[in-house]
Design brief:
With 199 residues, the chain is of the alpha+beta class. It has helices at residues 3-25, 101-107, 119-122, and strands spanning 38-46, 57-62, 74-75, 78-80, 85-94, 99-100, 112-117, 127-131, 142-147, 155-164, 187-198. It contains 3 helices and 11 strands.
């Protein structure tokens, strides 16, 4: 092989190496979740027969730039009455795109589930929660919250966690207060804490 052919092959090898190096450094596109700017908890008091009593009232967490997991949005204090039962609904919204994320969560109910943690549910709990969604999927967009008549204390916090792409058949995953939620896989789309005070 003459010198010209050797130089030609070396040049081709260098060009191929340069192309492969460039392509390997290209960033991998990320699959970011929906941007959430507002989360509203709406409470409707229920009587012993499950009928609505009085007007509903709500509490909101918001961040105009988006509520990120681990962020610090503006959060209202949830105020409930001792011994009462409420239907609680959750609305999730992106005000920047004027998009109702609640509808997407509902449509993809087989991939989403809310968990309700925090000291109000887990450490000497004074609240209980049960899923009451429309349809067959446990999601947590609608549920029943019961407040103890004589709790040991009057304030705590409610951690609301939205998991995406979890294994809903994982043992314990159907428990709304499932502490080991991470073992069911998936990732958190929302993790926000509301202070709660009982009257």
């Amino acid at each position: 092989m003459n010198r010209t052919n050797k130089l030609y092959l070396i040049a081709i090898a260098l060009v191929l190496f340069a192309f492969s190096s460039c392509s390997s450094e290209d960033p991998v596109p990320e699959n970011d979740g929906e941007l959430i700017t507002d989360v509203t908890l709406t409470f409707q008091e229920l009587d012993e027969s499950g009928n609505a009593v009085g007007d509903s009232f709500d509490f909101t967490a918001s961040d105009s730039e988006g509520i990120e997991v681990g962020g610090t949005p503006t959060v209202e204090t949830v105020m409930l009455e001792k011994g009462k039962t409420y239907e609680m609904t959750i609305d999730v919204y992106n005000s920047l795109a004027e998009e109702d994320i609640t509808e997407e969560i509902q449509a993809e109910g087989d991939e989403h589930q809310f968990y309700f943690l925090g000291s109000a549910f887990t450490s000497s709990p004074f609240l209980s929660y049960e899923y009451n969604d429309d349809g067959t999927e446990l999601i947590g967009l609608k549920g029943i919250v019961r407040v103890q008549q004589s709790p040991g204390f009057n304030n705590a916090n409610i951690q609301i966690l939205l998991r995406h792409a979890l294994d809903k058949n994982y043992p314990g995953a159907e428990n709304p207060n499932f502490q080991e939620y991470a073992q069911a896989g998936g990732e958190s789309d929302l993790d926000i804490t509301f202070p709660v005070v009982l009257n």
